[in-house]
Every structure is written in structure tokens, then in C-alpha cells.
Amino acid sequence: MINSNEILLFFASLLEELLRRFECEAGGSLVVATLCLLEASAAGLTETELRQLLADEESLMPPAPFDEKGMREQAFPEVVLNSSNQLTVI
Fold this sequence. Notes:
It is a single chain. By secondary structure, the chain is mostly helical. It is 59% helix and 7% strand. A hairpin with a 5-residue loop joins strand 1 and strand 2 (87-89). It is extended. It starts with a helix and ends with a strand.
């Protein structure tokens, strides 16, 4: 007999495979961006709001991890404790 956890795992893996296929197809970045915006919105988005947010295709995808890391390092300098137990900004 199949229990409810097995059913949930099956549907979760099925959804993951479906989203992976959408992502690989032409226009996949638009699908990913749309789903991310809908998930991030607590109250949902109207069609007009969604169209406005998705209008600029250049900014649909988040920056690459390398780009993001560089931006974070510029915005937040690293602070360390030196041998004299004083904070030093690197």
C-alpha cells in the first residue's frame, strides 16, 4: 500500500521535473522569473503588475553567484578580530 509521504514525494519530484523542462525550453527564463515573482509576492500579483515586472527581459534572472559575491564584498567590508582582540576592517 502506498502511504501519503510516498505520494507527496512523487508529486514533488514530478513538479521538479516539469519545472526543469520549462526552464530548458525557449522562454524558460520568463517562466522561472514569473514563478519567482509569484512566490515572492505575499498577496499575489495582478496581471498588470506581473507584466510591468516582467517587461525588462534584461533583468529577469538574478546575477550569477560570482557577480553577486563581488557586489556583496563591495557593499559590506569584512571585519575580523586581530591578535590584539580589536576589530579590523579589511
